[in-house]
User: Fold HupE / UreJ protein from Chryseolinea serpens.
Amino acid sequence: MTEFQLYFGLGKDHILDYANGYDHILFIVALCALYITRDWKQILVLVTAFTIGHSITLALSTLRIVNVKPDLIEFLIPLTIFVTAVSNLFKNENNISSGPMQMNYFYAAFFGLIHGLGFSNYLRSILGKSENIFTPLLAFNLGLEFGQIIIVVLFMSVCFILVDLFNLNRRDWKMVISSAVAGMALLLMKDHMFWLKD
Assistant:
């Protein structure tokens, strides 16, 4: 196995790790909750915005140009999930291309910056003091993207079955998914609030 394959696999496994990395999965689900399969172009823009955001801080933090307290990041990540999920509850899912909906692209890009810091903590722990980080950084990031695509495809497949095939009300789908994600994000925030006492 090459170094590229190793770090690609680590990136993919990190984002697909539903036991330890489900916060990132929840964020992707929250981003996609407003959309159905025919909105695939908007989903593509959304995923690209998240990719750009977390790629920037993943690189900057791994290169030690940006350094943020890990405990703070562990609190901010569920906060981004909560804000995204709650904002879904107040949006009209039938007006995908109108004003308030465009905030989703901002959430994806800006909150992606925060998630990139979380990814970098994991990558730096693996790299240790290694000086050659370009290949691991690139491979890890591509692995993250591959895993992210898998999550989107799986989530949108369930959406297609329930909304398109079984005619589940689109608004009900959005409300149930977003409410559930917001609730889980609150629990994560509670678990990571101890940093505020330091």
Notes: Residues 23 and 81 are 8 Å apart (CA to CA). The mean pLDDT is 89. Residues 3-197 form one domain. The chain has seven helices and no strands.
